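Next up, sample data:
>
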Amino acid sequence: MSAVFFYLVLFFWYLMSLLPFRILYCISDFLYYPIYYIARYRRKIVRKNLTNSFPEKSMDEIISIEKRFYHALCDYFVETMKFYGMSKERVRRRLQFTGLDEVNAAIERNQSVVVYMAHTFNWEFATSMPLWLNHENLAIGQIYHPLENKRFDNLFKKLRNQYGSENIAMAATLRRIVEIGKQGQKFLIGFIADQVPTWEAINHWLTFFNQETPVFTGTEKIARRTSSAVFFLRFKRIRRGKYIAHFEPMADDASTLPELELTNQYYKILEESIKESPELWLWTHNRWKRTREGQIAREKKRIEDRRILAEREKARKEKEKQKDV
């Protein structure tokens, strides 16, 4: 992507951030029609995900959720633009954190805190968490996947750390947590854990929305290893641009729980929270693209490839022996 195009986008983003919310939501309403009816942005994936996740619903009900989701997605776009550079006071009015007493209690017990999150609108606002938690010696951050385009990656990092929350690249999570410990600090880190693991990272399957689903277990492993208190951050939209994020306790000390219990518990809570407002979850995400059958086929191919390589190496060595003779 050219630098000229990026700076044009940045200039447009800046202009949008200056507009009041009432104008932005008019723009969102306008954007909905070309995105849903003309571009049909990922509609096949959304329809498939909704149909498989809610087999008890009629097609009219599925389409109703689908349309409400695309309206919410357009709201997400304009809200995220507005979020960049918003004053602390305005952010506090737009997102209220509740359940902080138990979070503060864990921090006062000298525990770190792991927060399970999800792609529920508008998750970007959760990066304002430092405005609500004022503790010395506490590192607050969120795990993220770096974007391939470096300019846009830097833009979103600025968006997400403007109120003091640290962006931690997924690949650097353990290293950063070790650094925090060496500095004598505790941490509160948010993990958006509802993504698709790579084939190599799949080591646990469970049933999620009636479908066999591969899941990440890294969040749980970190929580158990650090004896962290664990919470689920439940997002609720009160009205357009007005949210409540509630810290829902999952474990006082993750190290005391059996292996995989936190992961299984997270997906049960997540499914229940999505069913409350299904239009607010990111259905464009191709969540079920990996299957058990696909994993088995890949493993068979890997074994076969290793067998072929071994035979080739054996034949090569036999050939060398014959030359020596």
Remarks:
- The chain has a mean pLDDT of 94.
- The radius of gyration is 23 Å.
- DSSP finds eleven helices and nine strands in the chain.
